[in-house]
Write a structure and sequence with these properties.
Blueprint (H helix, E strand, L loop, with lengths): L17 H29 L2 H19 L27
Helix pairs in contact: 1-2
């Protein structure tokens, strides 16, 4: 059920390509920076560090929901591997 062969029988495709990893990292960083800024503003306004931590925790949970599942947006650029070629052994055996 969880094979990585990429067959059509596999409803859960758990692999992410290299470009998708870069996209995921960028989205994660943006979510955390925005949540940090909002958390700082809320905490500054209410003068409660707990409110800052709650907003930052909500940002981390949102980032986890957005990043951890391999959404199709992160799996668009499949890796095409080169065909295997036979290597000619030119070294003389001694």
């Amino acid at each position: 059920f969880f094979s990585s062969s990429g067959s059509t029988m596999n409803p859960l495709h758990w692999q992410m390509d290299y470009v998708g990893q870069g996209r995921a990292e960028w989205v994660y960083e943006v979510i955390l920076v925005v949540a940090s800024f909002i958390g700082f503003c809320v905490g500054f306004y209410t003068q409660a560090l707990m409110h800052t931590m709650i907003v930052l925790g909500a940002g981390v949970l949102l980032a986890a929901v957005v990043i951890l599942p391999p959404w199709p947006y992160f799996c668009n650029d499949k890796i095409t591997w080169l065909q295997r070629t036979e290597r000619k052994d030119t070294a003389a055996s001694s």
